[in-house]
Amino acid sequence: MKQEKNGVWTSWNENLTYKYKSLYKVTTEQELQEIIAKSDKVRFFGSKQSSADIAAGLENLIDITTYNKILSYNDAEHTITVQSGLILGDLIDAVEAKGWCIPCLPDINTITIGGALATGTHGTSGKLLCEYMTSCTLVLADGSLKKIEDGDELINAVRVSLGALGVMSTITFKCEPIYTLHVKEGPENDTEWLPKIKERLKKHDFLRILWLPHTDKGYVITGDKIDSETEIKEDLGPDYLKHRRKASKILYKYTHIFPWITSIANKLLYKGFFSSKKEYKGSLYQATVTKSRGSTLELAEWTIGLDKFTEVFEELKTEINKWSNKSFIHIPMDIRFVYKDKSWLSYAYKKDIVTIGCVSRNAATADTYEAFKTIEIIFLKHGGKPHWGKRFTAKDTAFSKIYDKWEDFKVLRQEMDPTNKFLNPYLTELFNEKK
Ligand SMILES: Cc1cc2nc3c(=O)[nH]c(=O)nc-3n(C[C@H](O)[C@H](O)[C@H](O)COP(=O)(O)OP(=O)(O)OC[C@H]3O[C@@H](n4cnc5c(N)ncnc54)[C@H](O)[C@@H]3O)c2cc1C
User: Fold this and answer.
1) Cα separation, 365 vs 85, whole angstroms
2) Is residue 251 in a domain?
3) Residue 242 has what pLDDT?
4) Which candidate in 60, 223, 235, 429 could, as Cys together with 42 as Cys, close a disulfide (CB 3.0–4.6 Å)?
């Protein structure tokens, strides 16, 4: 095991930095157990790609990315067991090589499995990623191991647990046979796509809408399962579409000084990059996951029950279109759909939900990005929940109102971590624990 002393921990977009005394790079479960047992306080991190301040802030840190092996497959059960520091892209490659898939993938493949599960990472038209986990081992605060399996009541608390109950060590995923999607993409007016959501969720196997604020348009992506041999007339649109992120960066360069420029930039970006149609076929991985991107963005994301989405969307749109409101929002706001589950801190606890992302393409100036504030006020008012790995300011009081199981989770956390070993300053405040 490698140990680094007295360094600086920096998140991927450089918005968070912390000094640490010891940083351990673990490669085995025993090492993980040893460090946790001997530390008074310790935090662990994966790819550092969360915008929320949950991954560091303590003197002792564990880098989990070196704990990254694929341990076993069960061909009969379609399961794969991995160490929690494995990068998601490597998991997907391994699963696809077997002819399997995990049927709901996020937009990013560079995150670790442990980080993804801890923060309730999700994709669209399926469940949270953690719902495909059938068992895991957890390293508890005293360094001992606990195996948790499907069917145990504890699994519903552990699936999304912000790394506050223990460190996930090995994880088993249940996979499904891989499938091919026939994907169609194209722009629609808000008046067209908004009323069609429920009908499309029934009709299509995949639905995602990239909403384009300040243009009255959404870019609708649908996918239908087809036989992999089916011929599709592929149309990937003009070649210059691949330069969208570069163009956005240029157009948004001064939007932190003059936020209203965003409104003009969005109209130009719509014309240039979202006004044509596309059609192709591919696996869920090909259709969903952005394979490369710069590290200059900052993210918030809010979720709301499917039944309330239209009302909340209309309110958000009206609010951000007021010139008195400085919330000019960079393109796109990613709208996705997640089906209900039983995990205590899941956004989809007992109800189908819609998620809506909010991106600032200038990470360094994210503190002054009004949209993060506006979206939080509106969603909280309607009982919406923020993504645990992204930017929000709500704390314990708000969560006790919007999560049925918030108090139960807090009690369990205190039982499992009585000395608050795993709480950094951010989580201490989030759970309203003693400093
Ligand atoms: C560009 C971009 C795109 C994104 N797209 C999506 C998306 O499509 N859908 C979505 O839902 N989210 C998305 N996210 C959010 C992302 O999935 C989460 O922030 C995720 O937690 C990042 O994983 P990580 O490995 O970087 O974790 P880190 O940020 O390093 O850690 C996150 C948390 O997990 C804890 N943790 C890490 N390892 C373990 C472990 N082994 N056991 C227990 N706890 C652990 C850490 O202590 C910390 O609290 C995106 C983020 C970015 C930057």
Assistant:
1) 30
2) yes
3) 86
4) 60
